[in-house]
Write a structure and sequence with these properties.
With 166 residues, the protein is α+β, with helices and mostly antiparallel strands. 18% of the residues lie in helices and 37% in strands. The radius of gyration is 20 Å and the shape is elongated.
Length: 166
């Protein structure tokens, strides 16, 4: 496996270069805007033989495919992503939820259900990998991950009647 070389492109973003086993090179430029450009250079050629530009979302979808994860298209009313045996669910916290106004650590979610909270979306703010001291607030959207049984256990344990995946 080749080493990935990384360098900063001031005012633009970052550049990653991977030399392939064939001797060809792939260069990925990630712009500060989130846009990605992928350049393919054949062995001993300084000019790219192909260039592809991807939006941030497109790049993430391609990344999911390339990583070997099974990708199932998301129906607009059902933002659920299936990855082999792993499911992600979007849970909207209603004001009277058992989860509302409590720290993640006091709920002991992972220990009791096996589910992990990967992200909290609070209005326009995204909190990736929230700390155990983070307080879950009404109107937050939780992105949780686990297998199907763990997700069902979470929904039952915390009396979630409606979620964005159903």
């Amino acid at each position: 496996m080749s080493e990935i070389k990384e360098c900063d492109l001031p005012g633009i973003g970052k550049k990653f270069t991977l030399e392939l086993d064939s001797g060809d090179k792939l260069v990925v430029v990630i712009h500060s805007s989130g846009e990605r450009e992928v350049f393919k250079f054949t062995k001993d050629n300084d000019e790219p033989t192909s260039v592809t530009t991807l939006s941030d979302e497109e790049a993430r979808q391609i990344g999911t495919i390339l990583s070997g994860t099974y990708f199932q298209p998301v129906i607009e009313d059902e933002p659920k992503l299936m990855m082999k045996n792993v499911t992600m669910e979007w849970i909207k916290i209603v004001p009277d939820s058992i989860l509302a106004n409590k720290k993640i650590e006091e709920l002991d979610i992972r220990k009791t259900t096996g589910v992990s909270i990967t992200t909290i979306i609070r209005g326009e703010t995204v909190i990736p990998n929230p700390s155990s001291s983070e307080i879950i607030k009404p109107q937050d959207t939780l992105i949780i991950i686990g297998n199907n049984e763990q997700i069902k256990n979470f929904l039952s344990t915390f009396e979630i009647k409606q979620h964005l995946g159903k």
